[in-house]
Amino acid sequence: MIKKEELLRLLKEAMDMEEKSVPVYMNHLKAALFWVGMEQDKAEKVKEHFKYLAACSTKHQNIVLEVIDKVTKEGRSAY
């Protein structure tokens, strides 16, 4: 079992890491695409996949926010 406070701390920590890491990864990958010299059509497909991953990350963040909200409002002290 995990205490409510610890669960909330871990959820918030995970969310912060995701919020910070996705933009960093996107910038690194854009730079890598530039320096690799990939064909334009392939580079566009890769960029589309990165945009999709960023959108998935946003959805994931929303889900984590919902979990944080639910845990915060519940009367339980452990999970």
Strand content: under 5%
Kindly give the count of domains: 1
First-last Cα distance: 5 Å
Please state the overall shape, judged from the principal axes of the Cα atoms. elongated
Order of helices and strands: HH
**Mean pLDDT, rounded to whole units?**
91
Radius of gyration: 18 Å
User: Helix coverage percent of residues?
Assistant: over 70%
Low-pLDDT residue spans? none
Structural class by sheet pairing and helices: mainly alpha
Biggest beta sheet attributes:
none
Please provide the count of β strands: 0
What's the tally of helices?
Answer: 2
In short:
85% of the residues lie in helices and 0% in strands. It has 79 residues and is mostly helical.
Protein model, in words:
The protein is mainly alpha-helical and 79 residues long. The protein has one domain (4-73). Helix content is 85%, strand content 0%. It is built from two helices and no strands. The protein is elongated.
Features:
79 residues
Give the secondary structure arrangement, pairings included.
Elements (H helix, E strand, L loop, with lengths): L3 H33 L3 H34 L6
Helix pairs in contact: 1-2
